[in-house]
From TrEMBL:
Record has Metal-binding as a keyword: yes
Taxonomy of the source species: Eukaryota, Metazoa, Chordata, Craniata, Vertebrata
SUPFAM superfamilies noted in UniProt: EF-hand (SSF47473)
Binding site for Ca(2+) 2: D91, D93, D95, K97, E102
Protein name per UniProt: Parvalbumin
Alphabetical keyword list: Calcium, Metal-binding, Repeat
Family recorded in the similarity comment: Belongs to the parvalbumin family.
GO molecular function, one term: calcium ion binding
Binding site residues for Ca(2+) 1: D52, D54, S56, F58, E63
Organism from which the protein derives: Ficedula albicollis (Collared flycatcher)
């Protein structure tokens, strides 16, 4: 399944473009702009599984760095600072990675 099966290609392009500058990433604004906030819990979980590149059931710090590329190949890599901030926001149980439920909570709270 491709990200564009769940989200509009135009919304993805706009959202990724809005955070093209280094150190500008804001996950709350991004999730809203990309249309994720309006999606059903099932669709949010599908997006999680697309971003979970190694299919471990978690999005680890290394995968978070490339989260924008998960939406579109044109996306930039997040900086270490942005990656750590995103991990801190999503990792509710402190295990150093984001599970599907934690991701869904992040989207819902955005």
């Amino acid at each position: 399944m491709a990200m564009t099966d769940l989200l509009s290609a135009e919304d993805i392009k706009k959202a990724v473009g809005a955070f093209a500058a280094a150190e500008s990433f804001n996950y709350k604004k991004f999730f809203e702009m990309v249309g994720l906030k309006k999606k059903s819990p099932e669709d949010v979980k599908k997006v999680f599984h697309i971003l979970d590149k190694d299919q471990s059931g978690f999005i680890e710090e290394e995968e978070l760095k490339f989260v924008l590329k998960g939406f579109t190949p044109e996306g930039r890599d997040l900086s270490d600072k942005e990656t750590k901030a995103l991990l801190a926001a999503g990792d509710k149980d402190g295990d150093g990675k984001i599970g599907a439920d934690e991701f869904a909570t992040m989207v819902a709270e955005s």
